[in-house]
Amino acid sequence: MTLHIVTRLVRCSRQRGSLVGAFSFPFCERQIPLPVTALLSYRHNSQDSSAQSDAGFISQCVEKRGLLRVVGPDAKALLQGLITNDMDCLNVDICPTINNCLYSLILNNQGRVLWDIIIYRLGEDKDKGQNYLLETDKDQVDDVLKHLKKYKLRKKADLFSMSDEMSVWAVASPPNESVTVASNKSHIFLNMDPRAPDLGYRLILASGTQASDVVTNCKVADDPQWYEKLRYRLGVGEGVVNHPPGKCFPLEANADYLNGVSFRKGCYIGQELTARTQHTGAVRKRLMPLTLAENLDEQPEGDAAVANSAGKQVGKLRGVICSLGLALMRIDASEDTSLHIKTSTGRKVGVTASQPSWWNTEGP
Description:
mainly beta, Transferase CAF17 homolog, mitochondrial isoform X2
């Protein structure tokens, strides 16, 4: 079967000139549009060496991430009141410069991050109406469902886990190569990662299907930590390990630089403090990538301090993979060359913090 192009193509300024095309294919018992951002002419210019391969595209199943579905006439309204981003950016009639997936955060009443999510806009369900997938940590899906149900009240929306039926894949490309789809077997969604261009593409597949079955010239990464290393190298946090619930604010998690927060939408839970922080410009800490002086066999304890030569804490560790790390750092201390962390045995290991180039990217 071939993919059928729906006539409308719009330029998405928010994603640096990528094209958004709507495609459809049979899935289950209905037609679900598949937005393939780069299928026609977008070329991904990754500057990250880990995203490049002579074999073409590299993919990996992001096993720590799960999916839940929100469907019904009031699905959009329910999500709009709970997330930091604007659901109207997924509505082509309201916002023509759209992408078909959206990065966002869910906050608590104090404006602190509970979960980071990616929302995927599917075609309307012929029986239930508005139809969205939410990606979050797999072991947090039940908690996110409970949170959404708490605020659903009388809104007409059904919520349920899809983690057993679907899987999340990351797909990265070599420079100047366009993604093409080999077949329409079981792929549900393919779109540029809405956070940072060097993260490549987000691909949703039916469980049991691999990205190499769908994307032309694509192989599964040999390194089981390939995707995690790519994220850490770029300085992009994901999940409750990098964003412990209730322990950081949206701008500290770089939501403004990662297209994850709208300062023009209406009210949502946690908005007041987020808006005030943006208005005053008082962001003193941000999540940053670290380079460690050596690969760590012994892991530091959770929330381990990043300290300077005087022993003063200037950051908190948010994760380590080999010689790569993420830490919530004081911005004014990020250029200090004397930084170190302590392992679980008390041994000091030197670290270098850096400010990612995409920090200059404008948010939505």
